[in-house]
Amino acid sequence: MSIAEIGRRADIHRASIYRRWKTLDNLITDAILHRVEFDVPVPDTGSARDDLVEFLRTVRRFVESPVGHALARLSVTPTIGAEASIDRRALWNKRFDDATAIVQRGIERRELRPDTDADTLITLATAAIHLESLTEGTQPVIDIEVAIDLLWRGVAAS
């Protein structure tokens, strides 16, 4: 794959692509981020617990899809160049920032303790789903509601 080939298929001059995306890695990262934002929206049901459950269900569906599985594998594959590593970090930072809105809303609604660390909660909540994907079914499948209830006991406001 090359920017020239992408430009040819899209009937756009490659210079136009390079103006927006300086490298092929940047273009691919942006395309993946757009796909993940579309396929893994951050829910807002009015309940942080329900949002976390729905978010994890959506993450599971995504990582079980061919694109999601490939992205999960790519995320743990060492990269040769610093550029690809930076792009990958930016991709995941954006998704985590979006997902932490669930926790922030829960704190504002007094469902969660004010000292709840949003990044840690989202990381813990999604870790088992990613492990399931990466180990290709050799780990037990978690019950998402049980997992969220277990985490909830540690962060709930009351």
Notable traits:
mainly alpha, elongated, single chain, 72% helix, 158 residues
Secondary structure layout:
Layout: H1 3-10, H2 14-20, H3 24-39, H4 48-64, H5 66-75, H6 82-108, H7 118-134, H8 144-155
Helix pairs in contact: 1-2, 3-6, 4-5, 4-6, 4-7, 4-8, 6-7
Low-confidence stretches: none
- The H-and-E topology, N to C, reads as HHHHHHHH
Mass-distribution shape: elongated
Q: Which percent bin holds the helix content?
A: over 70%
- How would you characterize the largest beta sheet? none
Overall pLDDT, averaged? Answer: 84
What structural class do the secondary elements suggest? mainly alpha
Structural summary, described in words:
This protein has helices spanning 3-10, 14-20, 24-39, 48-64, 66-75, 82-108, 118-134, 144-155. The chain has 158 residues and is mainly alpha-helical. α1 (3-10) packs across α2 (14-20) and α4 crosses α5. The mean pLDDT is 84.
In summary, what is this structure?
With 158 residues, the chain is mainly alpha-helical. The chain has helices spanning 3-10, 14-20, 24-39, 48-64, 66-75, 82-108, 118-134, 144-155. It is elongated.
